[in-house]
């Protein structure tokens, strides 16, 4: 039977009209509308997806001179980071000048913005080394490390980066070299003391590999140091760039295994001869084998934060560094390919 003209649907009528001018009605079918799937392109990003979180250290922002802490947190969120690592110093929002009530407000602010705090970091381990030949500096270092751990607890943050000691600090002229065996003994004593507080506060003291400090120069030494405390509150903060002058982060990652609790991504170039903080580069502008590094971390079961650490905010248009880093990390993690 032929349907009455008024029983035709709008769709049928439109199909008939298009057919009359020579166009295919297949254009209306969902399968014909869908764009063909694009295969991952290794030239654009990793073809593997890694179950790790993106973070960035506050040192990459022009804080506090040109941006407030809130602005930094909001920018990190807007740029697509899962977390941000904050720094404890002597003067700013996280410092001995502040206390629990202030840190609770910062935690609330981060929650309102919708960004996690991936950990706490500090440069204070250099002017006040835990292994200094000066007993007063050692004591002040212990006190400050305790304040950092308390700050982390008040912020609801688990990860606390700790530099356990230094044989030498090449960028400071006020540090007297410490004998290797003395450095080791003092570092173990200091971390043993701090571990008791960390256990009560439920935070982790994550020991960072530095290389420039002449202590814990191999992943095996790091493992032995961490394991000597027999504590879940003493783990590893693995920095990919700090050992890249003569070694390779993909090798360290495998040996450290599941001791790694947090990770710094620092880009390094082996093409240069400047062995200072200036040798670190924006992500992907170096010689690090990022596919090998991410594979090695994934093989250990690591699913935590990867935090970009960089010490030089851009002098002009500083937001560019944040967005560029987010894009680079998306490509490293296979979020964009």
Named CATH topology: TIM Barrel
Series of H and E elements: HHEHEHEHEHEHEHEEEHEH
User: How many E strands?
Assistant: 10
**From the helix content, strand content and strand pairing, which structural class follows?**
alpha/beta
Indicate the proportion of strand residues: 5-15%
Query: Sheet with the most strands?
Result: 8 strands, parallel
Name the CATH superfamily classification: Divalent-metal-dependent TIM barrel enzymes
Q: Which CATH-level-2 architecture?
A: Alpha-Beta Barrel
Task: Using the alpha-carbon principal axes, give the shape.
Answer: globular
Task: Please characterize this protein's 3D structure.
By secondary structure, this protein is α/β, with parallel strands linked by helices. The chain has one domain (53-332): Alpha-Beta Barrel (TIM Barrel). It contains ten helices and ten strands. The model is unreliable at 1-7 and 23-29 (pLDDT under 50).
What is the topology?
Elements: H1 10-20, H2 30-33, E1 53-57, H3 69-78, E2 83-87, H4 100-113, E3 116-121, H5 135-155, E4 159-162, H6 180-201, E5 204-208, H7 219-227, E6 234-239, H8 249-256, E7 260-265, E8 267-268, E9 280-281, H9 290-299, E10 305-308, H10 319-332
Helix pairs in contact: 4-5, 5-6, 7-8, 8-9
């Amino acid at each position: 039977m032929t349907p009455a003209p008024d029983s035709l649907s709008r769709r049928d009528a439109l199909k008939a009209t298009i057919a009359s001018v020579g166009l295919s009605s297949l254009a209306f079918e969902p399968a014909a509308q869908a764009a063909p799937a694009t295969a991952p392109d290794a030239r654009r990003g990793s073809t593997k997806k890694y179950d790790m979180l993106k973070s960035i250290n506050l040192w990459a922002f022009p804080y506090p001179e040109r941006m407030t802490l809130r602005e930094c947190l909001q920018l990190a969120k807007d740029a697509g980071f899962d977390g941000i690592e904050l720094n404890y110093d002597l003067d700013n929002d996280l410092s001995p000048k502040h206390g629990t009530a202030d840190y609770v407000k910062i935690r609330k602010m981060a929650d309102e913005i919708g960004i996690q705090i991936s950990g706490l970091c500090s440069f204070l381990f250099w002017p006040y080394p835990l292994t200094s030949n000066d007993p007063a500096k050692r004591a002040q270092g212990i006190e400050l490390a305790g304040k950092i751990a308390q700050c982390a607890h008040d912020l609801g943050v688990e990860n606390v980066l700790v530099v356990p000691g230094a044989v030498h600090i090449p960028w400071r002229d006020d540090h007297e070299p410490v004998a290797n065996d003395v450095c080791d003994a003092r570092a173990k004593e200091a971390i043993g003391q701090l571990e008791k507080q960390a256990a009560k506060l439920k935070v982790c003291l994550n020991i960072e590999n530095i290389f420039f400090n002449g202590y814990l120069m191999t992943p095996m030494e790091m493992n032995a140091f961490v394991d000597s405390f027999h504590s879940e509150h003493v783990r590893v903060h693995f920095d990919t760039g700090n050992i890249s002058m003569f070694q390779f982060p993909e090798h360290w990652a495998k040996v450290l295994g599941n001791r790694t609790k947090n990770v710094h991504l620092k880009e390094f170039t082996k093409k240069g001869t400047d062995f200072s903080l200036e040798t670190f580069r924006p992500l992907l502008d170096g010689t690090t084998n990022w596919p090998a590094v991410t594979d090695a971390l994934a093989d250990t079961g690591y699913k935590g934060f990867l935090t970009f650490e960089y010490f030089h905010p851009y002098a002009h248009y500083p937001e560019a560094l944040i967005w560029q880093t987010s894009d680079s990390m998306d490509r490293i993690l296979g979020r964009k390919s």
